[in-house]
Write a structure and sequence with these properties.
Layout lengths: L1 H5 L6 H33 L4 H49 L3 H4 L4 H23 L1 H19 L1 H48 L1 H6 L3 H26 L2 H26 L4 H42 L20 E8 L10 E8 L4 E6 L5 H6 L9 E6 L2 E2 L5 H7 E4 L8 E2 H5 L8 H10 L3 H5 L8 E2 L8 H13 L5 E5 L7 H14 L4 E5 L11 E6 L2 E6 L1 H7 L1 H16 L1
Parallel strand pairs: 3-10, 3-11, 6-9, 9-10
Antiparallel strand pairs: 1-2, 1-4, 4-5, 7-8, 11-12
Helix pairs in contact: 2-3, 2-6, 2-11, 3-5, 5-7, 5-11, 6-7, 6-11, 7-9, 7-10, 7-11, 10-11, 15-17, 19-20
Amino acid sequence: MIKRLLKSVRDFKKEALLTPFFVVLEVVMEVVIPAVMALLIDRGIDAQNMGEIWKYGIILIICAMLALVFGAAAGTYAARASTGFARNLRHDMYYAVQDFSFSNIDKFSTGSIVTRLTTDVTNVQNSFQMCTRIAVRCPVMLVFALVMAFQINSQLALIFLCVLPVLAIGLGLLMKSVAPVFERVFKTYDRMNTVVQENVRGIRVVKAYVREDHETEKFKGVSGLLYRQFSKAQKTMAGVMPLMQFCMYACMLLISWFGARLIVNGTMTTGELTSLFSYAMQILMSLMMVAMVFVMITMSKASAERIVELLEEKSDLHNPENPVTEVKSGDIDFEDVNFSYKGDPNKLALRDVDLHIKAGQTIGILGGTGSAKSTLVQLIPRLYDVTTGSVKVGGVDVRDYDIEALREQVAMVLQKNVLFSGTIKENLRWGNEHASDAELERVCRLAQADEFIEQMPDKYDTYIEQGGTNVSGGQKQRLCIARALLKKPKVLILDDSTSAVDTKTDALIRKAFAEEIPDTTKLIIAQRISSVQDADQIVILDGGAIQAVGTHDELLASNTIYQEIYNQQMKKGGEE
């Protein structure tokens, strides 16, 4: 885990290495200061020698200034290294998510990914900074101060060695009890983020159904759980400070008691006792900071595991060694295709699919909810891989293509239309970032989007709010269709993408497709028969299997499912 995380240090290795170097120099100066102070007291003040006072006073000032400089350098490099490490870590995680296939994305909730990119990275960043600075400073300070203490008086220095096991055992027990609590805390963070995102994204629905109180109670519940879990962890960690204070005061009392007797007996000087007090504080403060490091590491361990889990999640879709980079035509062939989202042959979403589509054809796809219509078309641009069988585009198995080249030629308007914050032009150019204004206007005319765009105050420069909240559902669908057309694909897939437009606009879109892009293979998933009745072939899906394939007239004459859908829609249309 640590090895994987450290890969993200990269271009900040120099800062990460310079931090402990300057920390060690700072510690050396701080350890030297009490020794010089003892000489100042014994040889200068007690001996009433101004020359020695000046001498050791100047040395003290130099040591203090050097400690300041080294400390500032250590702090600067530690800040650069930790923030750079966090930046690289976020980049690595974000890029990893971009490479995920749909099946990889299905494993993580949006709230969980957001928490890992924010809270978890911050915890690991703080831990990294403490490890490069405080975790180096504490043991070095402990060793150097102990060595100096033993040089002054080995008998009194043994007091520290007696205290260390007590602290180590106490800290170990605390860390062991609090680690599982922090693991639960970050899972609760995921839940809270999910609740907030759902509420903000669906705030209009919440208000329409007057469910504010329900959503408030839901947030209150998860927030309260987070409070209780964090409180439990913090209460446990609060035991660190009393333990440290007990050990510290016990050491000071014992050193004062035995040190005073040694001074009276003449075996120790006042300066040596003073410096011993300083070393006692340094040793005990080092131990206290070690406790803080342990707390931070315990908190960040759960975060680090979650980050590494995301980083090590590998996409199950890969390019072959010598990928095909050109899609020659829009022919599509499904050959004995079976598909399961979990790869389980006993839980198939699609079964025994054989379907052959010629380039330029328009194919309608109908079926009830859950009949795997979207699943079928998602195999064409290789958003998922088949479990068995093969899907071919242009006569080549989609697994043999370069994924990017394949998806450039297979444009898909997903069931959930998504627009991003930015202007209409910026959203459209997702299809082709180099498209001219004339090309934008052309595809918008094909998608019947030009009329409402021209009525907007800024036309194509109109700003789209996050999620496209300032345009209607039908407008959003037409913009997404125009965006897909801008790719000039050989295959165009519309996954129920005209459900929010009226039948007249739907007919105009289909008419434009037939006239303007006759060579593009078009697959249209629809709920309305009117949207697909002019198609070259209509595919009826039922329970993940193809139930029938034919033209409108053929299916109307022979297929009971098609007849039932047709009669229901015609009856409804007649009533209206």
